[in-house]
Amino acid sequence: MGRIVLDKVTKTFGNVEVIPPLDLTIEDGEFCVFVGPSGCGKSTLLRLIAGLEDVTSGRVLIDDTDATEIPPAKRGLAMVFQSYALYPHMTVRKNIAFPLRMAGLDQAEIDRRVEEAAKVLNLTDYLDRRPGQLSGGQRQRVAIGRAIVREPKAFLFDEPLSNLDAALRVGMRLEISELHNRLGTTMIYVTHDQVEAMTMADKIVVLRAGNIEQVGSPLELYERPRNLFVAGFIGSPTMNFITGPEAEKRGAATLGIRPEHIRVGEGLPWSGIVGVAEHLGSDTFLHVHDTGLAETITVRVPGDVEFKHGDRVVFGPDEAKIHLFDANGLRKP
Amino acid sequence: MATRHSRSAARLMMAPAVILLLGWMLVPLTMTLWFSFRKYLPLRGGDLGWVGFENYVRFVKSASFWPSVQATMTLVVGVLVITVVVGILLALLLDQPMWGQGVVRILVIAPFFVMPTVSALVWKNLMLDPINGFFGHLARSLGLQPVDWLSQASMPSIIMIVSWEWLPFATLILLTAFQSLDSEQLEAAEMDGAGPVARFFYIMVPHLARAITVVILIQTIFLLSIFAEIFVTTGGAFGTKTLTYLIYQRVLESQNVGLGSAGGVYAIILANIVAIFLMRIVGKNLDA
Fold this sequence. Notes:
The complex is a heterodimer. Helix content of chain A is about 25%, strand content about 30%. Chain A is built from 9 helices and 18 strands. The longest helix of chain A is centred in the middle third of the chain and has 18 residues, at about 165-185. The model of chain A has no long low-confidence stretch (mean pLDDT about 90). Chain B has 13 helices and 2 strands; from the N terminus they run αββαααααααααααα. Chain B has a two-stranded antiparallel sheet with strand order 1-2. The longest helix of chain B has about 35 residues, at about 5-35. The two termini of chain B are about 25 Å apart. The interface of A and B includes residues 50, 78, 86 and 132 of A.
């Protein structure tokens, strides 16, 4: 169980409206990611669900009961914070046991659940250490352990991986995804990293200035972005936007084409001078200037190709993969 | 500070300060030790030569010695308990966002800037005086008999005065400790089901442990040598004669420098015993 519904939820700080009226449903068992640039209100939204901030108006429903007035501890949600928020003076065991002690469980039950969580998260050997003696990834796991022992209706993650280095981030990403598969509990995950969103989510909510720009599965967002913002936010490297004659020819204000949907070869309609060529081994990203289309066009060529700075390159779009947007930035069907 | 050259240069430059401080400590200490073994009565014949441990024996055998040690400990412990407990509560209050926070914080610190003699006089005449004092008026307005604080409850009065002087210090240190507490930790505890009281005891108090240790250690050093407050208020009467005050009486009122110096050496020993106990009990909070 863990269906969360936001019903016309708003949040204002003073005179600033951070969240305009917003409706959203997160189904039971779903891995839902809130993604958006910093300051878009995604963390605020999570804290509204957690109950750490009061909604200004509207309702938060958890499992069809109105939780708007219920204090955070009673909502049955567990949260993992960006700073992990471990209790530095307690051992790992006591950290994980803390919510159970607060709930007044008996010691045998607490021990059983802590041992179980430690086993799941590979923390058994570290139970008697303090958070200060652990690495970043281990601390992250303790924070998750503290969340899972409560057997909550839903997990809330507030940018949990942003303090880890890149290699560890990929590892923890997998662990969290696996945890979700195993527990099947609703998870709400806030990040500014669209790669995390794309790889982990069942459902992505793209936010900008408190507004939901689009809700959908990762592939829906990738294949059919509803507007220019989503199109530019999802996908790496970002989509090329072309205005002017090329777009008008197709009856649109803006033409969008992802770097991976551009082919290189003689006889294709576009051409330009290679500025920077990034060789990743598996792919080569060409940043092409002087195309007459846009400032730079990014082209993703599979494999390693022999392009260097100053080379002339001829390329063209995959017509079926072109996205067209009208003057308001909305997708044309 | 990497090369050998710069290290020796650093030593050379630190030397004047180190030598000065060392001298500042060693000269009085040596003089105290020296006088404590001599019969030295400035108005009754001056320096009358070596007497061995006679001063030490006389000082301890005096009927005032153990009561003075007891009075010292009562004063120190009483003030420590009051300043730490009330300091935590005040710091908690001042940490809340409120209107005029800056001004209130400065007002709270203000008593620390008042000289001990002045604050003792203010308390003696404006607060504790049974006829003109605030507490006397308060008692009369409630129809009660005013209490002559300094004679009927002399030790509690002095503890009250000294606590008032040291409360700002404790509050200030504890307030900064509160401010360094990660708000996400409190939120995490809130999510984990800890109510305000549980959050206070499980999260805030452990976080304050180090600050409390600092407060206790620093205050103890100064509280062991409290003098002006006693001198101004009770003059050592009514069970308020601390070890410091007893030494003063031996040296200046009895004009017996040798006996007073022996008392001074006892005070050093007492301070060290207290320091060892404190370091054993609370010092481990300063590690890690």
